[in-house]
Design goal:
2 copies of one chain form a homodimer. Chain A contains 6 helices and 26 strands. Chain A is of the alpha+beta class. Chain A has a 12-stranded antiparallel sheet with strand order 15-12-13-14-26-25-24-19-22-21-20-23. The radius of gyration of chain A is 25 Å and the shape is elongated.
Chain lengths: 369, 369
Amino acid sequence: MKLEFSQENLLNALGIVSRAIPSRTTNPILECILFDASEDKIRLTANDTELGIETEAEGTILERGKVALNARLTLDIIRKLEGGTSSVTIESGENFAVTIRCEDSVFQIQGRNGEEFSYLPQIDRDNYICLTQFTLKEAVRKTLFAAALNDTNKMMGGIYAEVNGDTVKFVALDGHRIAVNNVTMRETYGSAKVIIPGKTMSEVSKIMTDDNEKEVLIYFSKNSILFEFEKTIVISRLIEGEYFRIGHMMSHDYETKVTVNRLKFLNSIDRATILIRESDHKPIILNIRDGGIHLTVKSSYGTMDGDVPCTKEGRDLMIAFNPKYLLDAMRVIDDEEITLYFTNAKSPCYIRDDAESYIHLILPVNFVV
Amino acid sequence: MKLEFSQENLLNALGIVSRAIPSRTTNPILECILFDASEDKIRLTANDTELGIETEAEGTILERGKVALNARLTLDIIRKLEGGTSSVTIESGENFAVTIRCEDSVFQIQGRNGEEFSYLPQIDRDNYICLTQFTLKEAVRKTLFAAALNDTNKMMGGIYAEVNGDTVKFVALDGHRIAVNNVTMRETYGSAKVIIPGKTMSEVSKIMTDDNEKEVLIYFSKNSILFEFEKTIVISRLIEGEYFRIGHMMSHDYETKVTVNRLKFLNSIDRATILIRESDHKPIILNIRDGGIHLTVKSSYGTMDGDVPCTKEGRDLMIAFNPKYLLDAMRVIDDEEITLYFTNAKSPCYIRDDAESYIHLILPVNFVV
């Protein structure tokens, strides 16, 4: 095999597929990227068996063939070659000895037989939806923070996606809070309910562009999901099982409704967290009255009191939260003003817009005044 | 005590003195910054007994007094207060309970009695030199990398400064290499020989500006050194003992002289290091011939060969180095072209300019071809 690339094109393709390289593995073939130029195109693939990414790299095939190369080493070498415009040749010889050349530098590294590499599985392409890449990235940004990626309950480490006609609902939760993002699509599709691993959503999100015009096709099959955009496909296993029933938790009743400037509220809570260490489990106490929310934090480091003006309907209320959960939710909302709904000091707080494009449920914590 | 500051001025002063706060200590007063407004100025001081920093903060004294405040907590609070222009008041009450107010936020934290705090020692101001802050920063940048801050030999963790009339020589070494920076001053002074702790030089360097007009006064006493610039003074203990005699190592004989483009040589060595892990101790082999240096690295990851054009005088030579030492030296040189002097494969290499404003000595390592 002998291929020629511009440094920039090769680096770009390597950057995409290397996201499926596991950070730790004892199986050396999983640390490799397959360069497959056995047909008319140059395809780069990485596959850790949970998550697989394949992309087409722009370049010239001088001699057909395929070889698997250590991802980290190859990426390091290409990244350090001079100038973005230099041309790079990758040539594999006897016993998969590989020569990488660029201007005055010649690297010799040991490749592996491409036949050892497990290709991405074929996926049934019947059931799918189409979103803009921007919409999917935003849905991930607005929900993934609420997932618990390292929880023993695997389902808490996933994002639940529920397709129903022209809408798709994304949900993540960790037992203390729920984040919901509702998206309306341009066309109407069938229905699907899947739980996608958080890591998959995170990597897909990093590869996609912010471009609001470019689309991504998402194909659902029984055990797998496939994302297709531009010259890249990402395949991931799904998390098996039935997701938490969140419908009955999404109450619309409330006793107190508060509208507040998001940034003012966020900054005030953020300042209060200076006095709280994660291990402290100290809550922030909100005293909601006509005209304003009074915030209080007490810890071994000291106390902080703050006031944020608000518009209040309904009863006065004193309620306490883990400030991190309030901050996380408020940071992913784009609205200048946000509305919070409360029932009592023991019931969840909801932050949602009127159209329910987003809903954040946050459980309160106990407190002593 | 009651003081008023603009957030920006206070943050600036806190940022300077907090560089003398030790990262780990069991003595809580060492974690504090002293706010002293017992006279007409507001002085902030931190002192870990090795290194002490005092600066004057711009602000208004509403009530005289002094109090010591936890540095990290105070810095966190002031940093998070809204906008750079808000005014901040710091007021200490009974039992050194301190209230920090800014707009809608009120923090209460526990201060400590300012009398517990050890002031900076008085230093004799007879023997001194004057440099621009830029010159001193550059001298640190160009030598400190060669010091061994964690070596059991404390002297290797320092920068040696030798004043002689209108010149000052800065030296750092770690047993494998020596970096020398010779500075010519605008005026003529006496003489001094001191070893300044690397940490002191590093912190002073971070506090000073890049401004080539602003000056720093450096006072030498028997056991201490004092840096004075703008509204700040830094006092540090010196490392005791007699520094290594490097004079006899600074040979001017050579058998091979090579002039090379610094960036081309640096980039080529940098690429080669991709194949070397720190723990490997694999050398880079330079094969110096008419017209070019051929570089070779062999490791368990593969091999790399590179060619860098050069102008050579004298004998051909094959010599090997720890590539890190070559890179470190070349990164702090500003010249486009550099000249390397060699005697044989067992003798040190020198990189120096004709005026000897800098000299880098690097020991070679053994190699097998």
